[in-house]
Amino acid sequence: MIYTIILIVVILYFVSLIVRDIGSNPLAEADSTEPPAQTDFVPKTLCKFNGKDDPKVYLAIEGVVFDVTAGKGFYGPGGPYENFAGRDASRGLALNSFDPAVLTSLDEPLDTLEGLSTEERESLLNWKSHFGNKYTVVGTLSNP
Ligand code: HEM
Predict the structure, then answer these.
(1) Ligand 1 pocket, 71 CB below 6 A?
(2) Which atom of ligand 1 is nearest to the CA of 68?
(3) In this structure, which residue's CA is closest to atom 37 in ligand 1?
(4) Per-residue pLDDT tens for 82-114?
(5) Domain assignments of the chain as residue spans, ordered by start
(6) Which tens digit of pLDDT belongs to each residue from 45-61?
(7) What residues does the Cytochrome b5 heme-binding domain cover (predicted)?
(8) Separation of alpha carbons 68 and 85, rounded Å
């Protein structure tokens, strides 16, 4: 009899653990949260997200804006790729160049990426997929 009671207590204990685990299922929590807000940027509204004027760092690739704040060491002030912060980084990534002169000035229409070679387009695609796997998309970049 005593063994039956112990067995029931042990079973109830494990059932309670399982129920608690289901209750704290991160997927269940993710389902109940809203998707991150998306913003429509133009070059002059994106440029403040450079880690200085705003602590967040964003950059755009082919019109898709990524939150790269987690990579602030790369893109934040003094980082090796800070030229991309708050900017359309497409041509720089295509050309594997961090020369700021490669990027379109904020007053000009967005770079249409005309004249890129097949290899340069491929390089850009690879970078875009790298950013897509690592960072969150927070909006789009288009002309004013
Ligand atoms: C001078 C030669 C270069 C060296 C030694 C170098 C080194 C590195 C290293 C060590 C990483 C980190 C990789 C990781 O752990 O994920 C990295 C990432 C990166 N590099 Fe370079 N790099 C060089 C040139 C360039 C150039 C010319 C560009 C211009 C487009 C560039 C753009 C990037 C970007 C965008 C990342 C990804 C950072 C991220 O994941 O957010 N690199 N580089």
Answers:
(1) yes
(2) 41
(3) 74
(4) 999 999 999 999 999 999 999 999 999 999 999
(5) 2-32, 39-141
(6) 999 999 999 999 999 99
(7) 41-142
(8) 9
